[in-house]
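Hi everyone, sorry if this is the wrong subforum. Our group has a chain we'd like a structural model of before ordering constructs, and none of us has done structure prediction before. Sequence below.
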Amino acid sequence: MKLNRFFLVALLSVCGHVSAHLNPDWNGDCEQALYQTFKKFQNSVKKYEHRDGQTMTEQESVQFEKTLNDFMGECAGIVVQCQIAYAFDLLQRVRILAEHEGDEDLASLVGQACRTVEEFWEPVLSEEL
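Answer:
Right subforum, don't worry. Here is the predicted structure as tokens:
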């Protein structure tokens, strides 16, 4: 496996692009969490920088792949957490709008959806980014 700096840049760009499409209210938290994750990843791969474009040993390749997988998992977790929070916020807004419009059936249905999301995702939503 060869270490390719362009691949790393592309990966960071994709993560940034995804987070930019989330609700702006949540972007600050997402950006900060992703930034911290990127810095951690950057620090963990510094030892490979002098090897850019060179073939890694089997042990280095395995360690780098683990580091990369951990990094991608953390980024995905952050983005999912922000998306869940945004979806929950949208459900709450729809419920309030339905109540305001006097549509009790819809308000009740969306209220049930909110409770389901809250119960199921509460551990995720309560974690700090």
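For your construct planning: The two ends are 33 Å apart (CA to CA). The mean pLDDT is 71.
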